[in-house]
Amino acid sequence: MNILLLGSGGREHAFAWKIVNSQNCTKLFVAPGNAGTAQLAENVNLSITDFAQITDFVLANKIEMVVVGPEEPLVRGIVDYFEANPQTANIPVIGPSKEGARMEGSKDYSKQFMDRHQIPTAASETFTKENIEEGIAFIDQQKTPIVLKADGLAAGKGVLICQSHHEAKDSLKEMLLESKFGEASSKVVIEQFLDGIELSVFVATDGKSYKILPEAKDYKRIGEADTGLNTGGMGAVSPVPFADAAFMRKVEERVVIPTVKGLQKENIRYTGFLFIGLMNIGGDPYVIEYNVRMGDPETQAVLPRIKSDFVDLLHAMGTRQLDQYKIELESFTSTTIVMVAGGYPGDYRKGDNISGLEHLGKDNTALIFHAGTKLNEKNEVLTNGGRVMAITGIGHNVQEALANAYETVSGICWDDLYFRKDIGQDILRLQK
């Protein structure tokens, strides 16, 4: 097949790597891609939210499947757009409908969905500027810490964990009255803080059948020991030792099955990936959030562990034949370290030259995934974003995988780079 992949991050480089390694891929185009995808596929300069432009490209290049990496095109309705056009209606687009994408596009919507289908989650209430006084009164009734979530998309930065009632009230005012996260915080979900161990579970679904992919634990904070500002993700580990068979059975029975059945019951078209952010509290799963695509950087740790053909998986999802797909997983551990530009997640510089890449990634103990990178006219790789690269180490266990990842990280250099040196250390402590 000729395949078009939308996106430009580390997740999309990992997707591209997996897709081109399939015998079922004739040609892969990535829009807009990065310096890493340029080594595997043909990058094309398309806007991921210009659906008319994407449609023209798909028809001109005989594209037979479109894979959507990030959430924004899904929330804006790219699947519905393709389905409404007779020329593209039969081309599988891997992602949910606009209604299905509201599972990520609106925290309030997803919380109501969970309540309707008895899916375990934190108690919560939603407020707008019109009833902000009720929100402030609600905060007074809560135990600290208190979680505030912007209702809409906020690039992974719309969640605040407030340690005091005073901080929570000030933050609520900033979000609702001062548009701290723009339109995303015109509604705010205030919810109970769940104290447990966080992990991410990934599900592939065609709307009726599902396959559970390898789980992962990611690290959101910029600073070591989980301190500082939230980011899009600073690292990931897969598999997760505290997600044993008994726990994952509970996840499937209490979360995955009710979610897929709930989507069916409400006639929500959902063909794609469902990322379920979970908290393990005393061996019981609670849903923190849904995302309607694979996570970043978890994808870079999860995809290497899928042994069966990835394009077959995508095609089975897109043609509603997932029940006939047999997923096979690798037994090894993968750990991902994200390398970022200095200053991220605040202000950071772009355009720095990245050195050391030519000597790395040849021995199958580590994989190099580009995120915020681009090529200049001399074909040199430059930084072009906050999260610049994700290095995935492969090993028999967490310790070996981390050693391989960090060894590769040490060979890559640009001015003012930063990465966390404690990824996976909490898991190693749990295993002792």
From TrEMBL:
SMART domains xref list: GARS_A, GARS_C
Entry's Gene Ontology BP terms: 'de novo' IMP biosynthetic process; purine nucleobase biosynthetic process
E.C. no: 6.3.4.13
InterPro entries per UniProt: ATP-grasp, ATP_grasp_subdomain_1, PreATP-grasp_dom_sf, PRibGlycinamid_synth_ATP-grasp, PRibGlycinamide_synth, PRibGlycinamide_synth_C-dom, PRibGlycinamide_synth_C_sf, PRibGlycinamide_synth_N
Keyword check for Nucleotide-binding: yes
Pfam families, per the entry: GARS_A (PF01071), GARS_C (PF02843), GARS_N (PF02844)
Reaction(s) catalysed by this chain's protein: 5-phospho-beta-D-ribosylamine + glycine + ATP = N(1)-(5-phospho-beta-D-ribosyl)glycinamide + ADP + phosphate + H(+)
Listed pathway(s): Purine metabolism; IMP biosynthesis via de novo pathway; N(1)-(5-phospho-D-ribosyl)glycinamide from 5-phospho-alpha-D-ribose 1-diphosphate: step 2/2
UniProt key word Cell inner membrane: no
PROSITE patterns membership: ATP_GRASP
Keywords of this entry: ATP-binding, Ligase, Nucleotide-binding, Purine biosynthesis
ATP-grasp domain mapped to chain residues: 111-319
Enzyme class: ligase
GO molecular function: ATP binding; metal ion binding; phosphoribosylamine-glycine ligase activity
HAMAP family: GARS (MF_00138)
The family this protein is said to belong to: Belongs to the GARS family.
Cross-referenced PANTHER family: PHOSPHORIBOSYLAMINE--GLYCINE LIGASE (PTHR43472), PHOSPHORIBOSYLAMINE--GLYCINE LIGASE, CHLOROPLASTIC (PTHR43472:SF1)
Name this protein carries in UniProt: Phosphoribosylamine--glycine ligase
